[in-house]
Amino acid sequence: MQDVFEEKRSCRKAMRRLLAAQERSETIEKSNAASLALISLDAFKGANTVMAYMAMKHECNPEFAVKTAIELGKTVVFPRCIENGGLELYAASRPEDFSVGAYGILEPIPERCRLVSPAELDFIIVPGVCFSKKCVRLGQGGGYYDRLLSSTPAFKCGFCFDFQVMDEVPHEAHDAVCDCVTTNGFTVFS
What we know:
Blueprint: H1 2-21, H2 24-39, H3 42-45, E1 49-51, H4 63-71, E2 75-81, E3 87-91, E4 98-100, E5 106-108, E6 114-116, E7 123-126, E8 130-132, E9 137-138, H5 144-149, E10 155-159, E11 165-166, E12 180-182, E13 187-189
Parallel strand pairs: 1-2, 1-7, 7-10, 8-11, 10-12
Antiparallel strand pairs: 2-3, 3-6, 4-5, 8-9, 12-13
């Protein structure tokens, strides 16, 4: 158990270094390319309710995919961290629907948005520090997404830069496995 914990910590540290070293212009360009791959998926095209996330500074940013979903008339949902280590989900589409929340990430303002059940989700854009080629996810370490992803039958699409996909990632039984991972260079399916 301790070995996996240390492997995860080491992997996160190395990947965060690589993410921080990427130029801002490259981050934007690669994020848009990954979004194009994501919106071409049949599961995305057929989805009515899509969960996305507000990207942290160096993360692959799904902003283009979110704009496309809104233009297509899909309901777009974002997570809000709550006290028990879980996520509440809210439909939000305007900048004024968000404020800085947990971990310095923009989150929906509950009073301005509609609460959505995980059962309503059709498609989830899943962030991660890295993913394996078998779509196993290594997240930030809080377990928020692992708990959510295990509670919904929605299609789960890992979303990252191509260098964040590795042959294997350190994982435990509770770690989420996505249905696919889209990047700026390729898509892999579990």
